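ok here's V-type proton ATPase subunit a, seq below lol
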Amino acid sequence: MGSMFRGEEVALVQLFLPTAAAYTCVSQLGELGLVEFRDLNASVSAFQRRFVVDVRRCEELEKTFSELTLMGFLEKPSLKLSERRCLGDPAFLQEEVRRAGLALPLPVGRLPAPPPRDLLRIQEETDRLAQELRDVRGNQQELRAQLHQLQLHEAVLGQSHGPPLAAAHTDGPSSERSPLLLPPGGPHQDLKVNFVAGAVEPHKAAALERLLWRACRGFLIASFQEMEQQLEDPVTGEPTRWMTFLISYWGEQIGQKIRKITACFHCHIFPFLEPEEARRGALQQLQQQSQELQEVLGETERFLSQVLGRVQQLLPAGQMQIRKMKAVYLALNQCSVSSTHKCLIAEAWCAVLDLPTLQQVLQDSSSEAGVSAVAHRIPCQDMPPTLIRTNRFTASFQGIVDAYGVGRYQEVNPAPYTIITFPFLFAVMFGDVGHGLLMFLFALAMVLAENRPAVKAAQNEIWQTFFGGRYLLLLMGLFSVYTGFIYNECFSRATTIFPSGWSVAAMANQSGWSDAYLARHSLLTLDPNISGVFLGPYPFGIDPVWSLATNHLSFLNSFKMKMSVILGVIHMAFGVILGVFNHVHFGQGHKLLLETLPELIFLLGLFGYLVFLVLYKWLCVKAADSASAPSILIHFINMFLFSSSPTNRPLYHAQEVVQYVLVVLALASVPVLLLGTPLYLLRRQRHLQRRPAGGQDEDKAKLMDSDACESGWGPDEKAGCSGDEKEAEQLIASEVFMHQAIHTIEFCLGCISNTASYLRLWALSLAHAQLSEVLWAMVMRVALSANLRVGVQAVVLVPVFAAFAVLTVAILLVMEGLSAFLHALRLHWVEFQNKFYSGTGYKLSPFTFAAEDE
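and the structure came out like this:
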């Protein structure tokens, strides 16, 4: 947790890896995730690097396991599944396992990257298993297709289409009065009736019948019937229905037309025997073949299940190992080769605390090669990356900070303070015991179930967002319960935990309220100046009697507005104070006097004094003097105008003198803030240039430190860096003055705008309370005040309460919660972090196999 307050110290190390042990060393570094490799071959094309052949082999093998599809199939979407298998779909293994309804198990334990010599073995085993699976699946498809044809043929022969009909062969279409059968001995007595039988898909049957009738001009008789049972499609496996048909005709030309038309409709044509006994014999033979084929198909599917079981065991481990192997070779491609070609040279960022572990890992990994790998620190010119270690609790808060910008190297990290301030500012806008408790319970349920695999594997994006911020939601709900007790609001209703500090009985006894007086006055006033009416402040939070007062909103309006200003000034002052730790750490002592001190004088002299006036009036002005209590707003305006108001009495003795002094100090701090740092840096540069060459070393180092800190990183990095000293010595006055002028204007104007920005705490708190009040009044109060029987009202309350619960969750929890979250986010990013946090760094991204293991 020590690195949470400031990023860890990171060093640039150079690794000398023996060629024989380079793969093993990098593989072990990937398991531990200690270093981030720098690309030493940035100018070399990816196709010209040393291990490009190994990367390609891994990619080819990875394609066999992956879920991707060949680009060729994307260009040819019309290819059937069977055609894709024949061509060798790269997702073949995984697709077959999923098609069989099997789940891929997670690999047991952490599998290391396999040695390079195992790559060929894994590839041969995978290809052999894929070919075996392809052959078995192909045989299964052929058997299913043959079985499907037999079942269709069986259905055609078994379907009852009536007795064979003979159509009259005439020179033209027959009329209604012409007989269908001609007397024997006619001119066409030598013609023979032929038959075409088959099956067609139901949605094509009507079109087929219509086209046959039009093309053959009615010289045929067609009978269509739908099959009673559904047949399994041999490709998709889905049940489908078929229509069987029997067509009788005369003449070879008509037969040719019928065959061409049925072929265009992709009909299945089967031989049809006219004698009934022959059809029965053929039907029995088809049934026997179908039974034998089903037995062979069953044996094939059982063998296919065994092959799929082996694939199911191979895929998870194989996928993980190949991904790790590919990552190792990609990391090795970032290394340069020594002149003797006996070792690889790599550069990497590593935390200083992990350097002993790094050296030990390299020694253990290279012990078999006979030559030990070496790691040593080297000077750097670039700013090191930022490393802040997090856990499951702090990750969401660190994510809020990093969304604004990753902190520069060893800059003060706002995340530890955000753990408290962010939920608290959210709760100030969302304060309600009931709403906060619902949010807390929802987050608590996610926290308790965080180790369940089903919860982690959920793919819903909204759920992943909530689950990732479960600890943030937990604290937000907990703080909302706390502020809800302060506001004394639970679903907009006040609760009486302690006795009220106001006594209505004492007011009635001492004011002489009679029945006639009570009848004439619907509103009564409690005077705290009367003894016994105000017994003392409520022990915790706001007195519940205020929920009955007509000036309840005015009271909360004044209270929350002043509370927002107080919290805002404290929050901004805390941000300025955190900047002190940056200046001390980076050796910028001059900024303590020339920047931090003027900033505090300006902020606290004006707006800190406003907070003092609010607190002083709360503590020192009594109820007896409330009628003549001075206005803080008028005093604050007169403070800037250097004037006084005779009708607005001062709060304390010599108030005007104090205010004038504070304004003068605040105005005097502006030129110090504007000119102090640039003049100091220019004076040091001029002093350095006047010194003799032999005595410039110390001052040159100091100037380099100051200039380095101005550019974004401190002397701790420069101490071990080999930057260009001439560039460090050169200081452009115009740029320094311009940078400082922008900073001064931003801070001075920001103090005013940022203080006003914290009034959003007041606005959103009142909006949340009023929305909750309106929802209660328009839904629950209407149902509770209905003059109905007890049983009827109980029945009515069920849907009313359901509607109240849905609206509460949808509007007050989700919408209002999201609004308060965004406003709290803005207060941290703009009003708080810009006082000390630059966010111009970049993260340390170590080379690790953690993603592959997950």
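fwiw Residues 412-501+536-680+740-835 form one domain. kinda neat tbh
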